[in-house]
Amino acid sequence: MLSGSIPMELGTLFELEMLNLSDNNLTGNVPEEIMKLSNLSSLNLSNNRLSGGGEVLLNIGGLKNLQVLNLSHCGISGRVPASVGSLMKLAVLDLSKQNLSGELPMELFGLPTLQVVALEDNHLSGNFPEGFSSLVSLQYLNLSSNAFTGEIPTTYGFLQSLLFLSASHNRISGIIPAELGNCSDLQVLELRSNRLEGQIPSAISQLSRLKGLDLGQNNFTGEIPDELSNCLSLTSLLLDSNNISGHIPDSLSKLSNLSMLNLSSNKLSGAIPSSLSRISGLKYLNLSSNDLEGEIPKTLSSQFNDPAVFAMNRKLCGKPLGRECANVRRRKRKRLILFIGVAIAGAFLLTLCCCGYIYSLLRWRKKLREGAAGEKKRSPVSAGSGGERGSRGSRGSRGSGENGGPKLVMFNNKITVAETLEATRQFDEENVLSRGRYGLIFKATFQDGMVLAIRRLLDGSIDEGTFRKEAESLGKVKHRNLTVLRGYYAGAPDVRLLVYDYMPNGNLATLLQEASHQEGHVLNWPMRHLIALGIARGLAFLHSVSMVHGDIKPLNVLFDADFEAHLSEFGLDKLTIATPAEASTSSTPIGLLELDPESSEWEEFLLGVKVALLCTAPDPLDRPSMADIVFMLEGCRVGPEIPSSADPTTVPSPVGES
């Protein structure tokens, strides 16, 4: 950790582009010489103990190329100087956790490239700054823990790129403007601890990407709008300490991603909807200090057994409050009456059955005495033979139940062979995901919602002992870009199963085919770069553990729910009896002559040729290892000449000429 003052000699480094002295124990003033480094693009002095007021920033206008300015938590006080408005290339401004005061300069609102503004934990004052609404590139705005007053401007609805807006712990009044519903990309809205009033606008339901909504400690009235259930991405909903009335909407149960729900210290009434227990990911719930009534749903009380969750609701009863509901005694009395009635009815039926049995027994004995034919039908010999057959049948059934069979070995989960058969519908043809050289792959959907991929190897596999040993070894090969073996089953010689994670987004071959029909909009350059990087990482890991894939092709590159690439079809040769190698590719690319030179397939072929020339250089020492390829791909970035939304079929390949 550095200490002392910042050396002024740094001001002689005229070609310096980045200066990061954060998280140290530096003191004193910032040398004026540093403010003359015109090539500086990033300046980070955060988390130090610098002295001086706003004069530290007075000469900052000389840093014409500055893009990132981070002076967070470094002891600066005074006003934000107007010279900040001269940094026309500034994209990130972080002046948080200081002692800054006064109003923001108007020049700050004229920076066209500003994307991140962090001014929280200061003493800034004045009306809520409307000037930020002119910064159409703004994505992050944090004005919390200051002394701003006035109302939220309706012009903030023009900030289409805004992702994060926090103005908590200020003195803002008025209502939430409905125009905020136009900020379609907004993910976090925090307005806690202000003086806002009125109803919660239903326009918030238009924010389909909203994940966090915090409106606690204000003066909101009215009911919770049902339309909030349209914000399906919501993970945190905090409406505590307001004057909200009405019932808790049953529609909140549609927020399946919700993990935090705080409705405490309001005027909510009515019963607690039992549907809240259907929110499987709910970890925090607070309904205390309301006017709720009735019995707490048992499914909810078993999930949240802390009395504080439901406290200060005088008309609530049941667990975990330990307060018996008024209708519980009536239910107990009804149960007792029902039990007595059932007992009497049961005794009556039992009496009838006994009488019927005695009557039948008497008639049977009478028939025995009356005829010889009836006596032969009931002879001891016949009965003995029948009993012997029944005994043999019983022994056979019991033996099959006791013998059992080989178990399904799972490294993490606990599932049985019977559950697997049910999940694949007895390996029904409709559940086949793919067919490969090693057998069929089935989709297995279990009753608890878990989905796995089950590979059934071809007949004629190796013996059971060797299979188990090789499967255990293969299960230890784990990497984020490989399909990891989760379990195996070795039954009869013709039944060998391998259990993998289910990859819901298909394979690279299908993705490339979709891209060719949609003019490259499915696979932009950043996505292709991530796929190539994932494949290279997976191969590099296999090579590091002395394994060779041997069959790299688009069909063997699978995608999980996050579209991360996973290599499959590796390490299976040792689990099957050796057969003549099947060529995965031919010496001549089939269909190459049919490709349109202006199509995405032609671009992909040229890209493959370039990579092949690089990896098959005449001198082996010139060829890169997979680790080198991973390093190159990790260093590769989509440059300004190729935007992330560009059509890959109409821009130059990011791979350099070999």
Automatic annotation (TrEMBL):
Protein name: Lrr receptor-like serine/threonine-protein kinase
GO CC annotation, single: membrane
PROSITE patterns in alphabetical order: PROTEIN_KINASE_DOM, PROTEIN_KINASE_ST
Pfam family, one: LRR_1
Main location: membrane
Membrane topology: Single-pass membrane protein
GO molecular function, one term: protein kinase activity
Subcellular location(s) per record: Membrane
Superkingdom assignment: Eukaryota
InterPro entries cross-referenced by the UniProt entry: Kinase-like_dom_sf (IPR011009), Leu-rich_rpt (IPR001611), Leu-rich_rpt_typical-subtyp (IPR003591), LRR_dom_sf (IPR032675), Plant_receptor-like_S/T_kinase (IPR051809), Prot_kinase_dom (IPR000719), Ser-Thr/Tyr_kinase_cat_dom (IPR001245), Ser/Thr_kinase_AS (IPR008271)
Disordered: annotated segments: 375-408
Keywords attached to this entry: Kinase, Leucine-rich repeat, Membrane, Receptor, Repeat, Transferase, Transmembrane, Transmembrane helix
Species, as recorded: Quercus suber (Cork oak)
Domain Protein kinase: start-end pairs: 427-658
PANTHER family according to UniProt: LEUCINE-RICH REPEAT PROTEIN KINASE FAMILY PROTEIN, OS04G0122200 PROTEIN
Keyword hit for Transcription: no
Transmembrane residue ranges: 336-359
